[in-house]
Amino acid sequence: MKIVVQKFGGTSLATPEMRNRVVQKIINAKRGGFQPVVVVSAIGRKGDPYATDTLIDVNLKICKDIHPREMDLLMSCGEIISSVILANTLKARGYEARAFTGGQAGIITDCNFTEADILEIKPDRILDSIANGRIPVIAGFQGVTEDGDLTTLGRGGSDVTAVALGEALSAFAVEIYSDVDGVMTADPKIVSNASVLSQISYSDILELASKGAKVIHPRAIEYAIRGNIPVFIKNTGKSSPGTVVSFEYERSFGSSKMLSKQVVTGLAHITGRVQVIINQDDPIVNNRILRELADNRVSIDIINIFPEKMIFTIEAAKIEDTRRIVEKNACSYNIVENCSKISVVGSKMRGVPGVMSTIVKALTKNNIQILQTSDSHTTISCLVKGEDTAKAIIVLHEEFELYKNK
Ligand code: ASP
Ligand code: MG
After folding, report:
1. pLDDT digit string (tens) for 331-345?
2. Ligand 2 center to residue 10 CA distance, Å?
3. Predicted local distance difference test score (pLDDT) of residue 248
4. What is the DSSP string of 102-141?
5. What H or E segment, with its residue span, contains residue 52?
6. Is 71 helix (H, G, I), strand (E, B) or coil?
7. Which of 51, 174, 259, 314 has the largest count of CB atoms under 10 Å?
8. Helix%, strand%, coil% for the chain, nearest 5
9. Ligand 1, CB cutoff 6 Å, lining residues
10. CA–CA separation, 116 and 314 (whole Å)
11. How confident is the model at residue 260 (pLDDT cuts 50, 70, 90)?
């Protein structure tokens, strides 16, 4: 039995027309000789009645300090509603289907409410449903603890459900359907000639996703790598092939003979970053600051430590915590709000000289100030002022000729 896990995002389920398209995708898989296992997200976006953001707002209007356990109980309703609606839509079209919560589908998690990790999947009920000729439709983004409490897997976690199930069921492939055409070389809302990649390696998509590209949850890719499962990213509203993510592509490594222009796969960005500069030369104090930030769950990024100062970035929501910690340690400091981190990603850039120089040239030529950089073998990130975000992405896309990527 060749199982294909098909995950449908919230916009794909929003209207009866869209749901008909979803049914068609499921039926096409069946006709193609596959056994579909369906995973769904909550319907719609913020403001729509069952969307996750709406449910969070409902809770926060009642009480600012909701216990994460109760937050999860409410948040998980969005996906449960979707699973029942889609199972019944299939039934109305003459196909037997069965809706499952994450827990009923055998997804067991730890107790880290709102950010739970999957400990184990016992897919017996999914397999029973298949054996009885009923298409399983599973509520994404959720699981259950060993004590029976409902948990959620972190925002965007339906992707994680889909690929984790793919691994547990030794699926032939996982398909992630949404309203985008596939993995793109940059955000198409910013770059009009951004191109859809027909294929991408696990490592490049993992980098793009963790650097802000909203294509798939990065943790989902970790499951795909572990299970060696190809993931297809497709548009529900079209029949275009989308992007395939797999190891295949990984084998064509770059060499130093490649031009620096040819080694970039795509761009990702994160807005709303805050740069913190601490002018301080005592390593013991720096150490204490880093410890206290960690204890207060302030996650820091683009970290540079020099003999006389320390620089890093944080998310805007953590400014007050950070300010309090730094002031307590009596340091002179400077906070630069509203920055964006732009990342240039490509596993082929490993060992190829000139990528950084191309980035710096393109940005400075266009009067975009680089506030800070960080790099790994496969990614170079630049922190720029928020107002320069779109311009920086457009000029880098042009400079690296990413519109030519396929
Ligand atoms: N509905 C959840 C969220 O908005 C999970 C998902 O869509 O993947 O984060
Ligand atoms: Mg998503």
Report:
1. 899 999 999 999 999
2. 8
3. 63
4. TTTTTEEE-S-TTS--EEEE-THHHHHHHHTT-EEEEESS
5. helix 52-62
6. helix
7. 174
8. 40, 25, 35
9. 10, 41-42, 52, 78, 140-141, 155-159
10. 23
11. low
